[in-house]
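Re-run requested by the PI after the first attempt was lost when the workstation crashed. Everything re-entered from the original request form. Ligand of interest: fe (iii) ion.
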Amino acid sequence: MLPSKRLLAVATLVTVAGTAQAADEVVVYSSRIDELIKPVFDAYTAKTGVPVKFITDKEAPLIARLKAEGANTPADMLITVDAGNLWQAEREGVLKPIKSAVIETNIPPQYRSSTGSWTGLSLRARTIFYSTERVEPSELSTYEALADANWEGRLCLRTSKKVYNQSLTATLIETHGAEKTEQILQGWVNNLATDVFADDIAVLQAIDAGQCDVGITNTYYYGRLHKAQPDLQVKPFWPNQNDRGVHVNLAGAGITKNAPHPEAALKLLEWMTGDEAQALFAGINQEYPANPKIQPSAEVQSWGTFKADAIPVEVAGKRQAEAIMLMDRAGWN
Ligand code: FE
């Protein structure tokens, strides 16, 4: 009698566990591509048995899709890059504010939404890069100083249509006000060596090729290019170390307003802010872990340390419209 009873108990447990697992899947909409998120989800599934399903697309269609699906959305979580985009998602009402002691412990407040609607997961500095052949680091100081006349015809920038530049400009407005920011932007535009570029990698390649001497890009693009091209004659410079610090933005996530599995999604999000996921998430793309207890990759560490701007990154969203207007007025294409 006893052995078969035990067998029945085991069978019942398996069934219950199987049911719980199906109910606990998490569905993610992500503007980050497959190769940047799948290893993290695979590690979570291996650890917990909870399946994570995801689709990837650009942030605008994903937010539009969440709005259109409303209460019928299958999505529990939205992952995207730049506080400007996360702030937009929050404003469009597709995210659910959450309160989590785990996330509050793991992620510094300037890298989270003040309403709890999203949290940063990995960080990237948008900093100055210079030609090691034509620029001495001692010639560099601040973002603002790139507007000075000695950089005339030497600066490369990416298009103002990219949210990364809009967010950087938003922090300039927060620091200096609109009038001074417009002057700085005009100085940058006057100093351009050539038309603006469609992406950050092209800016770095232009510096390497001698088309310009300095530029502003995100650090992970340098990480990628430097890995493929170790002899790159370009290095990062950390500006504004005597005042507010380097502009740091993030990739992050929030739980959707109509998440079918909100508890399971929160558990995944909390896990993503912890040790194992942070090292994975940041390391895959040469980013900085948003959890300051975790070390970045060896490549990222080789760039040295810097003081980061402590302005809450949600300013990027709040001042986005103003930033776009000023960039336009300054003639930044
Ligand atoms: Fe990017």
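Saved to the shared folder this time. The longest helix spans residues 2-23.
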